[in-house]
Specification:
DNA polymerase, domain 1; three-stranded antiparallel beta sheet; 14 helices
Length: 332
């Protein structure tokens, strides 16, 4: 079996098992392996794949992508899953996946650290409420920071999912009409909103939302001129507005703002201080925990397990955690 054929068969089978974002991530990671087989190793038949080949690929991929240990573990873990699947259909020799050795990580090396801090979030929201009130970007940032939901969940929202009277959003997994939640039906839930968030949503819906549906009988909450915008479009708007020069008027990196490359179209993410939607989610979760919201409540609200919450999202320092525990224990 040719590597490219095996990859397509693997992705086709996984489509019914995992979210579309996971399929896209696996496609991205596996395309490098297919490229290496075709252009470097000249492997036309996966039956020929050996442990030595996989070690060569590991070294090539690290150099080709200039990857750190965390990214290497992520990419090689996907390769292992793929190779093990290939073994099950007799495309690769048995136990080949066990020959893929993952790099060792330090205790905290696999934790992502980028996040929107409380201070930056306060400055950003103050700017949006004063100068970009009721824009789509303003409403989106208010929702992401207050609820900690994923960008995919925000992208999936319809106008009907917002209840302005009861002040909540209703999240649904709707793969049949083009939107999905990361954890599928288990991610479906009600998320309560604050008065500030509702004010922003109400004004956005009244004055600035682009009318029209998405061609599938639905009315996206965060809409664009052509209906429901791509998640990448929403992501780009977040990178743009989270450049500090946008909401503070200053550059913390001593760059000349007028000539900075991060001001160019589609290059906002090159700003060292701009953040992704996931960094807002991480900051929101940390903010909730710092405000003494119980971990179980945060876990349910943000649709993340307690183990993952502690390992990947909680950015509180150990001293801060100790001080919060003291507040609970002083009166005992």
């Amino acid at each position: 079996m040719r590597p490219a054929e095996a990859k397509e068969m693997y992705l086709s089978q996984r489509e019914s098992e995992v979210s579309q974002s996971t399929i896209q991530a696996h496609h991205y990671r596996l395309k490098h392996f297919v490229r290496w087989c075709d252009e470097v190793a000249e492997i036309d038949n996966l039956n020929e794949l050996t442990g030595r080949d996989l070690q060569r690929y590991k070294m090539w991929r690290r150099d080709d992508g200039d990857l750190n240990n965390v990214t290497m573990v992520t990419q090689l873990s996907t390769i292992r899953v793929f190779i093990k699947w290939c073994e099950n259909i007799d495309a690769v020799a048995s136990e080949t996946h066990e020959k893929i050795l993952l790099p060792s990580l330090g205790k905290t090396e696999d934790r992502r650290t980028a996040m929107l801090s409380d201070e930056a979030a306060a400055q950003l929201l103050e700017y949006l409420r004063q100068f970009e009130f009721a824009t789509r970007t303003h409403a989106l940032i208010e929702v992401l920071w207050h609820t900690g939901i994923r960008i995919g969940a925000a992208h999936s929202l319809d106008v009907e999912d917002y209840d302005r009277e009861e002040q909540y959003l209703e999240l649904h997994h709707r793969p049949e009409t083009g939107t999905r939640l990361k954890n599928k039906t288990e991610g479906a839930r009600y998320v309560s909103l604050s008065a500030n968030v509702c004010d922003a949503l109400d004004a956005y819906l009244q004055y600035n939302r682009d009318e029209g549906g998405d061609g599938k009988g639905r009315s996206p909450l965060f809409s664009g001129r052509c209906g429901r915008p791509a998640k990448s479009t929403l992501r780009d708007s977040i990178y743009r507005i989270t450049r500090p020069c946008e909401y503070t008027g200053e550059c913390p990196h001593d760059r000349e703002i007028d000539s900075c490359e991060a001001l160019e179209n589609n290059k906002a993410s090159t700003c060292p201080s701009s953040v992704s939607p996931h960094a807002i989610r991480r900051g929101s979760i940390t903010h909730h925990l710092s405000e003494d919201v119980p971990e179980k409540v945060v876990s349910d609200r943000m649709n993340v397990s307690l183990d993952v919450l502690e390992k990947h999202y909680d950015r509180r320092g150990e001293r801060e955690k100790a001080e919060q525990r003291r507040d609970y224990l002083d009166d005992l």
